[in-house]
Amino acid sequence: MSDSLHQQFLTLDAERGTIYSEDGQMLSTSIPTFDVFIDFNADGLREKKGKRFNENVDSFAISLANYFNDKTATQYKKELQLAFKENARYYPLKKKLSFDEYKSFRDFPLARLGRNKSGIIIQTSSKRLPPFGLLANRTIGLAREFKDGDKKNKKQNVGLERSYDSVLSGKDGQRLVRRIAGGTLIPVEGAETEPVNGKDIYTTIDVNMQDIAETALMRMMLQCEGPYGTAIVMETNTGKIKAMANLGRRPDGSYWEDDNYALRATEPGSTIKLATLLSVLEKGTSKIDDKVEVGGAGRLQVGSKMVTDAERSPRAVLTVKECFAHSSNVGMSKLAYKAFAQRPEELKEYLHRFHLDVRSPIDLSDVPKPTMAPLNQKGSAEGNMLWMSFGYGLQVSPLHTLTLYNAIANNGKMMKPYLVNTIQSNGLITKQLQPIVLEEKLCKPDVVQAARASMEATVIDGTATRVFKGMPFAVAGKTGTAHVSDGPIKYGDGVYQATFVGYFPADKPQFTCIVVVRTKPHAASHYGGTVAAPVFREIATKLYAMYVEKKNPSRYAGTKDSSGYFYAGFTKDIKNVFKAMNMAYRDSVAENNWASVYANNYQPVMKAATVRQQVMPNVRGMGLKDAVYLLENMGLKVAVRGRGKITMQSVAPGTALAKGVTVILELS
Question: Which CATH architecture has domain 207-546?
């Protein structure tokens, strides 16, 4: 009975794993925060009628006021004396102190006397920090805890933080403690379970590509003042998501990553015409060079519906390819009517084959499911089928559209989109995720080639000609302009969704990209070719310059992959290794003595590692020899755990240093 009154289990928090970019840069990590409480009933404060408290309260209040600058010393003293008088057992003094603030606080009068004499209690917790701020913020997600109505700890996570929560969280430990005189808790020896720290995640995200996509999208959002926009970049032959930007407008007119618009299902507009084109060509009811009468008035009766084109056709009769390139609603609906008028639900069978009626298999939680109007109800089936053929009557996400276009860029092989490359524990890979093929052969090879030719025609002589004029390389794609009606927004409100989706280089695609921008009501510019396509052009131009390889590899060249790695060390030694192994690499080190190496578009890249006096360098990825040499020459002491490459360091890079500080290095 005595044990049950005086013993209790305390939770030992596991350290949450870090989320990295493909080249090893932190995208989300945990930093410690400190809450300070005072037990004014502590024996050390109460003895001799509170002599120790009274002797220190003035200097303690002055230190608090000078350092935190939020109250005067008089206010601090008054509050502390009142709490002492009321015998407060758990007086909250400060919340969420950073490590630097906590270190300074420990040297304050009273606080430096220790817990038993000062009554000061420190509670440590962790705060999730995205070092790159806005970049990929919604895709990486949030990890935060809160207490519900029953005072129980609950998690509120989104993005990868939620999808991989069980991997990142680890397993908490526990320690049995005994309460002794004065309320002090001491551990019971042999009654402790160590926490198992969470594992690290290395994503497919490339920070530079994400920055390019985010910047280009932001430029257009600020110009058009629309409510939201998204841009996604996918590696064509693997399905890796290299960038996913989501920007939503806030009340003050600024933009932030507030929701994952890349997954939001909406009526896609003309980008769905690729699915219609593939369906009719695959069924064989039309060929790519067949003639289609679209008329010269911009509207025509198709079946039971009057169909209108956004812009008049250049000619009264177009080929199937030209119907696609000039985005003719009349032409595409006539092709669909010819193929599916007798059995409208057959169109849905093709849409299912193209994975447009199921949730995207991307490795994120709470992915919305597409919706479609019924195609098997008498009286409405034909009309619904016609609306679907040019982008209405169904709702799919930008990621669905991108996955379909990427399959055509990839010669008919549909890849699963994914965001995580590897899961690692202490620098060792515990799980390697590989590209997954959803459909080996989406449709016949000649249909794929016809679709690619149609997308190239869109850029050369179609709805996207003007914006891509003068491009130094070939792109292919499709514009889309959807009149929006969802939730409180109705067609009469004049809101549009502008889209451009395509791939580059057109002859040997390496990247597929989609840009979707929701416009403000009655915006003067709202077309896919004038709002979304310029963003695509900026992203494509920069990625082409930085990442697209212009090589003719040997027929015997080994298969390349884009798995992430990260090494660091003495520049001369690294170059000697590359030279000895006859490996090509990109060098941006200049004369710097220290460098890091990471994968960038299948090629090693050497980047200068900045080393400054009195500032903690980043030694992650180094061997022990280099790290000890570097740190000890800076006047630091080094303690080591494990063996292999360095995966963690106790002092964060960029921290100001004093000589004699001990740095603990953890090796893989």
Answer: 3-Layer(aba) Sandwich (3.40)
